Amino acid sequence: MLRYISRILAVFAVLGVAAPVLAETPAWRVGMTPAFLNDQHVVLEDWRAYLEKKLGHRIEFVQRDSYRETMDLLRLGKLEFAWICDYPYVHLKDQVRLLAVPVNQGKPLYRSYLIVSARDPHTQSLAQLRGKVFAYADPYSNTGYLVPRYQLHQMGENPEFFFSRTFFTWSHRKAIEAVASGVAQGAAVDSFVWDTLAKVRPELTARTRIISRSPEYGFPPFIAHHSVSEGDFRAMQDELIRMGQNAEGAALLQRLNLDGFTPGDPGIYRGVTEMMKVLGE
User: Fold this and answer.
1) Strand pairing class (133-136; 186-190)
2) More confident residue, 126 or 11
3) For tag attachment on the chain, is the N or C end more exposed, with fewer CB atoms within 10 Å?
4) Can you give the pTM of this predicted structure?
5) Domain assignment of residue 45, given as a range
6) Residue 3 domain-assigned (yes or no)
């Protein structure tokens, strides 16, 4: 049987035709956290089909509603790859390898945006949100939880008592919606998510206003579980990096609001590590 399959694959190679994905091949499971806009199901399906065609391997995207759920799947070895936030990446650094870093607006970096309602013309700083209702994105979000708490700590404030009430929305989009609807008076959100929504849902972001932008941090990375073989690691990494070199891949990147992928440097996540140390995490 193996000899027969090898001959079939050889014929496809000679003809210059992409080999079909073998149905019996175990899928590579790719975790997707809410850092990915969870309503872009069509884009995700097209991306899955693209990767299967290029890799000759089944791909299964696994979406969860919180960063912690994806982190737990990685800890249990139930994901081969994942696109996660930089905060979970630092938490899991002994169990995963940096695979690739998305490039957005020419850099593998992003920021935390502090936002308020567009109907609020007066608030210009985090200090002015004292005693207000504040929305956090996720307990393991850098831009939506770690950064605002670190900023309050740097101001000499206790994040536990600064706001009158806080709550988790479990996604950056929902944090933006909370501020836009008036459920929260402020939130800290992922710049990539806000900027992408400004393109695809401008009527939503127009109901919010950015009052400050944080320093730049390493963009939420693609990672591989440490059990992934070197060959599989390189295959996935190479295809992500090559996406911008063909028309179909470039079109997908545009729909994802990304410029491309780079191998990345773990050093770009030092800022997150330092904030965690300051907060005793």
Assistant:
1) parallel
2) 126
3) N
4) 0.87
5) 26-108+219-269
6) no
